[in-house]
Amino acid sequence: QPMAQLTKLGKDELLALVAELQSDKAALMRQCERLAESKEGYDVLIQSLENQVQSMRDSQAKELAVMYEESLTARSEQEYSIAVLRLENQRLKDEIAAYAVFQEQNETLQAALSDLHKQAAEREARYAEEMATLKD
Question: For residue range 30-51, what is the model confidence (pLDDT) as tens digits?
């Protein structure tokens, strides 16, 4: 049907229609060029945003790696402190045990010394008695 309508038009009308179509085509071509330029601009913007996102991800990954290393260091320091405290605790327990042994030995020695003092006093008393009896 559109072809039937075109065949009814005269030469001047067809030329005017062709000119109008060419004008429309030119306008559409300009619009396509503008859209292509806009697309290129958006592509550049998108690439820039993607680069920023990747940069942020890289920064976050580095920060997480640093934090992880710091946590490992802190954990190692804590484990070292715990080991030192355990050794110190064991040393103190050993000293307390040694003190208890020394205390027991001291008590034994004091008892032995007390017995010796007692024996010496008894001997001295006996000698004094013997001396008194010898003088008589």
Answer: 999 999 999 999 999 999 999 9
